[in-house]
Task: inverse folding
């Protein structure tokens, strides 16, 4: 989607209070259970079809300061010794998984997240990357992405990233306004971000993503517009524009953000609409729910060709059938199902010390799960789905989703989804409602006690 938008993303603000999953997986993480063990995960890994590509996600759950908006699994440390210990056990996990999987699986994507992976020393970055390359075979065109905190990003770190083979960086910005930054405990002058971008590009890391958030304390439309203006001056390849999820019952540190400082539902919607309008009218292609990319970026190309995918890192070009998570709290997505590692580092470390895969929980996929996962992913990626075509390999069709189609009628009445036989489509102007449409196909949602993020 390019060009100025001429109508609002949603027509009814009373839908904004709805809370539904982000659908980076299906079934979603609240439905994982301890019945999937390390032994089961090992069996799944050992029986991956020969030759299928792998994607590797590596989690570094440490930061040196706490951002009060953060919903990630991370710990604040003020010495390096916890990272040294963590890396030793991470090497054990890499070796253990590689031995089970065996050779013959090219790695097409690597993503390091956190926390702050750039808390590692430059030498440890190079050693960790070398370990991965020694145990797995990287495809010649593999994408190697890393999440970067530009605060304190030294030239030595940038050089280490380039030497390690990093070719895409996601840079956390969130908001450029000083009052907003103080309210979320993330002081990051724009000059710091600008310097990091220039030095990354000078080192040959030219594919850059910028992460922004709306719905933060003290944000206004004017401040959102100014932040996007500054961020666009960096000429990134991609933007991710997320809505802040205020869940202090789950992330206690979010209680440090005064509730009264947060924009209400209508203000969140206005901020979201404004971000979409500015980026869309500036030549960026809207990707799914909340990403934007230059038309020549691989993400935009994948969307045009119907190859766009969605996983725990958001929208991606990663089509590998097996995503293996490494590190505490990381999640693996395999053909057989999902597995999450132990979240607490001491428990994760103990399992690896005993030579066990550090699994906490997971879920095995049924055929119905696989069918609904495909429907939800296509909706989230393409804003449309052909129920008959997707369900046919399962011996089903649109006729088998009568209840779901009935549940979508109120959204259809508001112009948020259209039906043509077995085809469903969400207008580009209503893309913010896509999670509500996807939720109609989620058979687990009604049985869940989980509190999800607002739909917008």
Result:
């Amino acid at each position: 989607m390019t060009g100025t938008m001429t109508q609002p993303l949603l027509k009814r603000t009373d839908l904004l209070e709805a809370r539904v999953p982000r659908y980076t997986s299906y079934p979603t993480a609240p439905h994982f259970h301890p019945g999937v063990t390390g032994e089961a995960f090992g069996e799944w890994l050992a029986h991956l079809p020969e030759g299928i590509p792998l994607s590797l996600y590596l989690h570094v759950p440490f930061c040196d300061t706490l951002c009060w908006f953060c919903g990630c699994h991370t710990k604040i440390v003020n010495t390096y010794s916890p990272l040294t210990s963590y890396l030793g056990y991470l090497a054990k996990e890499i070796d253990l998984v590689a031995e089970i999987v065996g050779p013959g699986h090219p790695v097409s994507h690597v993503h390091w997240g956190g926390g702050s992976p750039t808390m590692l020393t430059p030498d440890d970055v190079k050693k960790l990357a070398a370990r991965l390359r020694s145990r797995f075979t990287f495809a010649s065109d593999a994408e190697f992405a890393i999440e970067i905190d530009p605060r304190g990003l030294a030239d030595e770190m940038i050089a280490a990233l380039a030497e390690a083979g990093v070719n895409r960086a996601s840079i956390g910005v969130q908001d450029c306004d000083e009052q907003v930054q103080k309210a979320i405990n993330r002081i990051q002058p724009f000059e710091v971000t600008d310097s990091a971008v220039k030095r990354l590009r000078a080192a040959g890391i030219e594919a850059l993503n910028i992460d922004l958030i709306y719905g933060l304390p003290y944000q206004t439309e004017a401040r959102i517009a100014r932040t996007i203006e500054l961020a666009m001056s960096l000429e990134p390849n991609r933007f991710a524009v997320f809505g802040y999820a205020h869940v202090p019952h789950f992330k206690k540190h979010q209680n440090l953000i005064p509730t009264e400082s947060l924009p209400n539902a209508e203000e969140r919607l206005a901020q979201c609409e404004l971000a979409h309008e500015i980026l869309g009218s500036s030549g960026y292609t809207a990707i799914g729910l909340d990403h934007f990319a230059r038309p020549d970026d691989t993400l935009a190309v994948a969307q045009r060709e119907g190859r766009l995918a969605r996983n725990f890192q958001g929208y991606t070009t990663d089509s590998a059938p097996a995503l293996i998570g490494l590190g505490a709290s990381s999640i693996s997505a395999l053909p057989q199902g999902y597995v999450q590692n132990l979240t607490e580092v001491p428990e994760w470390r103990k399992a690896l010390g005993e030579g066990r895969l550090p699994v906490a929980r997971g879920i095995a996929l049924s055929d119905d799960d696989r069918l609904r996962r495909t429907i939800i992913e296509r909706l989230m990626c393409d804003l449309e789905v052909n129920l008959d075509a997707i369900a046919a390999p399962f011996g089903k069709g649109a006729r088998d989703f009568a209840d779901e189609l009935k549940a979508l009628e109120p959204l259809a009445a508001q112009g948020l989804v259209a039906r043509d036989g077995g085809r469903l489509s969400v207008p580009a102007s209503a893309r913010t409602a896509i999670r509500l449409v996807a939720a109609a196909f989620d058979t687990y949602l009604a049985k869940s006690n989980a509190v999800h993020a607002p739909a917008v």
Summary: The chain has two domains: 1-19+366-449, 28-326.
